[in-house]
Design a protein that fits this description.
Layout (H helix, E strand, L loop, with lengths): L1 E4 L1 E4 L2 E8 L15 H30 L1 H15 L1 H14 L3 H19 L4 H21 L13 E5 L4 H5 L6 E6 L7 H9 L3 E3 L13 E5 L4 E4 L3 H24 L13 E6 L5 H6 L5 E5 L13 H14 L4 E5 L27 H6 L1 H14 L4 E6 L5 H20 L10 E5 L2 H5 L1 H4 L5 E4 L1 H9 L8 H4 L5 H16 L3 E4 L10 H6 L4 E4 L4 H10 L5 H12 L2
Parallel strand pairs: 3-4, 4-5, 5-6, 9-10, 9-16, 10-11, 11-12, 12-13, 13-14, 14-15, 15-16
Antiparallel strand pairs: 1-8, 2-6, 3-7, 7-8
Helix pairs in contact: 1-2, 1-5, 2-5, 3-4, 4-5, 10-12, 12-13
This protein binds phosphoenolpyruvate (PEP) and magnesium ion.
Length: 559
């Protein structure tokens, strides 16, 4: 038995014979054409064929995988219709007297370079480059009058490749695909997204060890753990059978609850949103049927980097979340980074207690140039959905006032630069310090919503460093202090007509779901995989017995 490891994209168990997918790569060289008008006609004919083919593929994909995933072919149609793209090729044919094939190859090169120069690290840009390559390969095939190579599978197969072009995965015959494994690729690539949507177990980034010498070997793919078992022994096969049964039961429960309301038996409704750490979590948030994103921790854009992320990178990332959520609310928290972050480019001074020092909104307010870049990107992205901006570690109203001044400066700059944005984006305070709790009546008059960050609130109110290995032993396990704070924050929020929701881990603790509902918390934002359990609990509750509700509050809050 051989084991290969990679990054799990969509959890499942797939069994089949390994088959490598080959693309028919062709070598294109430059040739001089005398009759450029004839060459232009050859190009135009091929382009029309591509347009027709993409329309058909779109219709086929809509029926097979749904409107959302079929959008790939819409994007491809937009590319083949794009003036710049088309005229670049036409100009090359006319001005350089080159063959149409060469014009395509050169255009792809120029466009890819131009786009990666704009933002080499943006997943969004990499995907658009992949789309241009994909459409161009199709165009080349039509110019050369070659038939599309059909990748025919005769038996249940684990389909392997270096990576797939977006349209290649969608064309795979799902009835024969047990799993997809690639050497490279990112969790946000179309391959990954489509595998998730089609429910195909998928592992990416296995690396060079995924060799063609494995062709035709039997394999079990465990994409819950990101492991390929090649020629597995009996014991492993049995363990994986068991895992599949357990996970299958969990998933069945999930599908039954999708689309249902987060409503108690007596009709109290509450929002259940997702906390996500980067773009790769969006899919899970969607699969688990979140009501929106309650917290996007934007630090991922700054972590493991050599320099500050520029406005474009940030803009593409925020826009991506907003478009993916299709009008559902998306709360993006401005960066929460401090001296404990190990990021040299921030040039932080060493601090003895970074958790109590120069971090988060304090960094943003003392270095407005960094803050403004993020705000510009956020405001520009705001036109793509229902964006709300959340400011962390607030301890005073004066910070909100200063934030709003900076926001106004950013808006004025965007107007000056002719960049569209929404003017009325809700601005919220993350209530995660005792100071913010005690001032929540005043803060409520200055912001549009509250998010209660119970993780830091536990740390700061109980005076226990949150990464202290003995945290659980020291912290009172009834959470009474934080529960009382939640009550105070909710009361103050509602007295001033704004909403308050919980986005710390406590929000997902179903022992307290009833208490949160009793306290009229407006929403719970939890890790995507917890959405189902929280929803199930909400749907099992009945708050109509007032006496019992009062007892419950008394029991937990002792008041
Ligand atoms: C919190 O403190 O509860 C919170 C939501 O933010 P983080 O865990 O990122 O500090
Ligand atoms: Mg926090």
């Amino acid at each position: 038995m051989q084991k290969l490891m990679g990054n799990a994209v969509y959890g499942g168990i797939g069994r089949g014979v390994i088959k490598f997918f080959h693309r028919d790569e062709v070598v294109i060289s430059k040739a001089r054409v005398v009759d450029t008008l004839r060459e232009l006609r050859r190009f135009a004919y091929a382009r029309n064929e591509v347009i027709e083919e993409l329309k058909q593929l779109y219709n086929q994909a809509v029926t097979e995988v749904g409107e959302d995933e079929a959008q790939i072919f819409m994007i491809h149609q937009m590319i083949i219709d794009d003036n710049q793209y088309v005229s670049s090729m036409e100009k090359l044919i006319l001005n350089e007297h080159c063959n149409a094939e060469f014009a395509v190859v050169r255009t792809v090169k120029v466009f890819s370079k131009m786009m990666s120069d704009m933002s080499s690290e943006s997943e969004y840009i990499s995907e658009r480059i992949a789309d241009i390559r994909d459409v161009s390969a199709r165009l080349l095939r039509h110019i050369q009058n070659r038939d599309e190579k059909v990748f025919k599978l005769e038996e249940m197969s684990v389909v392997c490749a270096d990576d797939f072009l977006p349209s290649e995965t969608i064309m795979l015959d799902k009835s024969k695909v047990a799993a997809i494994c690639t050497s490279y690729g990112s969790a946000n690539s179309h391959t990954a997204i489509l595998a998730r949507t089609r429910g195909i177990p998928c592992i990416i980034g296995i690396g060079e060890e995924l060799k063609e010498t494995l062709e035709n070997k039997y394999c079990i793919v465990d994409s819950y753990s990101g492991i390929m078992y090649i020629e597995p022994d009996n014991e492993t096969a049995k363990l994986l059978d068991h895992k599949e049964a357990v996970e299958g039961r969990k998933r069945e429960l999930l599908t039954r609850l999708r689309g249902r309301k987060n409503i108690t038996r007596d009709g109290r409704e509450i929002e259940v949103l997702a906390n996500i750490c980067d773009l790769t979590d969006i899919e899970s948030a969607k699969t688990n049927d979140c009501g929106g994103i309650g917290l996007l921790r934007s630090e991922y854009l700054y972590n493991n980097k050599e320099d500050y992320p520029d406005e474009e990178v940030q803009f593409y990332n925020y826009r991506r979340v907003l478009t993916e959520m299709q009008g559902k609310p998306v709360v993006i928290r401005t960066m929460d980074i401090g001296a404990d972050s190990d990021l040299e480019y921030f040039g932080f001074e060493h601090e003895k207690n970074p958790a109590l020092g120069f971090r988060s909104i304090r960094v943003c307010l003392s270095r407005p140039e960094i803050f403004k870049t993020q705000l510009r990107a956020l405001f520009r992205a705001s036109v793509y959905g229902d964006l709300r901006i959340l400011f962390p570690l607030i301890i005073d109203v004066s910070e909100i006032i200063r934030i709003k001044e900076i926001v106004d400066e950013v808006k004025a700059e965007l107007i000056h630069d002719n960049k569209p944005f929404k003017d009325n984006i809700p601005l919220g305070a993350l209530i995660e310090t005792p100071a913010a709790v005690m001032l929540s009546d005043l803060l409520a008059q200055n912001v549009d919503f509250f998010a209660i960050g119970t993780n830091d609130l536990e740390q700061y109110s109980n005076a226990i460093y949150r990464y202290n290995p003995n945290f659980e032993q020291i912290c009172p396990d009834d959470h009474i202090c934080v529960l009382r704070m939640i009550k105070m924050v909710c009361d103050n929020a509602h007295a001033h007509g704004i909403k308050a929701y919980i986005c710390g881990e406590l929000g997902a603790d179903t022992d307290y779901t009833e208490v949160f509902l009793d306290l009229h918390v407006d929403g719970l934002s939890v890790t995507p995989t917890n959405i189902l359990t929280v929803r199930k609990t909400i749907r099992s509750l009945n708050l109509s017995d007032r006496r019992q509700v009062r007892q419950n509050i008394q029991k937990h809050l002792k008041c």
